[in-house]
Amino acid sequence: MFNKYNVIVVGGGHAGCEAAAVAANLGSTTLLITMNMGVIAQMSCNPAIGGVAKGQIVREIDAMGGYTGIIADKSTIQFRMLNKSKGPAMWSPRSQNDRMRFAEEWRWQLESIPNLDIWQDTVKEVIVENGVAKGVVTSLGIRIESDAVILTNGTFLNGIIHIGDKKFGGGRTGEKSATGLTEQLVSLGFESGRMKTGTPPRVDGRSLNYSVMEEQWGDTTTSKFSFTDVEVPKEQRCCWITYTNDKVHDILKTGFDKSPMFTGRIKGLGPRYCPSIEDKINRFAERDRHQIFVEPEGFRTVEIYVNGFSTSLPEEVQQKAMRLIPGFENAKMYRPGYAIEYDYFPPMQLDLTLETLKVSNLFFAGQINGTTGYEEAAAQGFIAGVNAHQKINDLHELILKRSESYIGVLIDDLVTKGTEEPYRMFTSRAEHRLLLRQDNADIRLTPIAHKLGLVSDERLQKVEDKIKNSDVLIDFMKNNSVTSEDINPILEREGSQVLNQKTRLFNILTRPHIHIQQLAEADENFRNELSKYDQETIEQTEIKVKYDSYFEKEMEIVNKMKKMEDKEINPNFDYSSLTSLSIEGREKLLKVKPRTLGQASRISGVSPSDISILMVHMN
Fold first, then answer.
1. What rounded mean pLDDT belongs to the chain?
2. How do residues 425-463 score in pLDDT, each as one tens digit?
3. How many angstroms separate the CA atoms of 198 and 376, rounded?
4. Would you say residue 267 has pLDDT above 70?
5. Would you call 205 helix, strand, or coil by DSSP?
6. 143-151 and 362-364 as β-strands: parallel, antiparallel, unpaired?
7. How far apart are CA 300 and CA 237, in angstroms?
8. CA–CA distance from 8 to each of 25, 32, 134, 141 (Å)?
9. Spatial separation of the C-alpha atoms in residues 437 and 441, rounded to whole Å
10. Is 471 helix (H, G, I), strand (E, B) or coil?
11. What's the pTM value of the predicted model, to 2 decimals?
């Protein structure tokens, strides 16, 4: 029935979509197998993309030729750049999205890729011969052969949904769970565990009183994730903010005796940084209110996502408590919140390419690796898809370093440190975050993607023009001055010290509260020069001028660490022969099998003295 494929991707979520798309775009004949073609790229939880650190990941995926940023832009109903009051390392793009259009655009994108096929079925088994993945067997009993397999099963592996004291199998509300695959992988020697996540109730927006809530509009200036010329919808939708109160908390507490989280029915750990409302009340008892974000699900629906009210309490308790929130007095619930418990595989069983250590040509990506979030999943899917193609074609693997991308930080953290709770990306996890900004993702990663054949010559040229034009603009500012008479009114307005003589534009821009457009306001020649460049180039220029000395110091640190990061370790290195290593260090090194000395130094339980011993032996 089926010809042999180069790559089979199991699961049609965010990881699966990026994996299938990039493998096919690189030239591999690819099959995406999903349990339900009607919910490809479903936003299972909040209808939003990006946020703190997550937005940086989306821009990185886009810079390398992935699609998450493009799809998010096409389906956005509101866009905001978070943390603009902080330094540029913290700026994080986030979009509120039309849930149905997001999924529709993703499916159309996949169906537009020539050598990508889609099959609706459930995978029951990975075909493994002599330690190599050779294809899959589906629930229909169909055997489909391939050169590589990528598992992106999300929350579907033995998924159980909890609402109060009720529980039933499911990978998502209204969809069945996947069984059999975990058991097979465990029989092959893989270690598995359980994790938990949850989602809030959805309500009818017509039943809410928005007049008592705070309005939350997006940015007035049009912005987007993608570095391409994708068009974004001109219309924008408002979101709102309201708050819980003591009465809400008291009602919620009446259901605690039926909460699967408190009664111990849920064994898996939930996301630390996205707790349920009952967990918030329990952990932060001193707080008398918690923020609730009221978010539309799309342009052509009245359904509302109640962000901040994730819960698995009985549905009647959810409804009663929710109606005590200001604006929700007459709220009609479409569907209750629930918790879901599912299998995952601790990611220390993976190589940095996301290929499993136990079975060759088998890759894991997304929540199966213990992560949470669409963005983290999409990034892993992209890397797994690239490396599956590269591996079966005997091409060079793609491993991004911690110093060149958030994606590199994400995968290095997972593979080197592992995770016992759903992993979420934060800017604080990246030690070189000043270099890993959202504005320069294309400069950092598009050249890498071009070498792989994922982006066109024209797109690379656009990046090179951005760098060149920024340098030209900086030279202009270094060589041109503005009179004190022209600039002082602006300096006074901004509370900055006035000048008594002509001063270089470059020197004035280094001041904290002065921006490049204000210089254009003061000087006509500079205004004319600035009109030649697009907004991305202008923003890049201002950041470079203001933070150049910090960037240089950060690069010095990166270069000092480079020797250790580039010092490769033979994958067959026999750590057991080094009796001078600590027992724990030896065990961890044998388990992780680090690629480099730098990776070895980040393994929990491997001490500095272990690294010193390793360095001496390697030298």
1. 93
2. 999 899 899 999 999 999 999 999 999 999 999 999 999
3. 17
4. no
5. helix
6. parallel
7. 11
8. 14, 6, 10, 16
9. 7
10. helix
11. 0.93
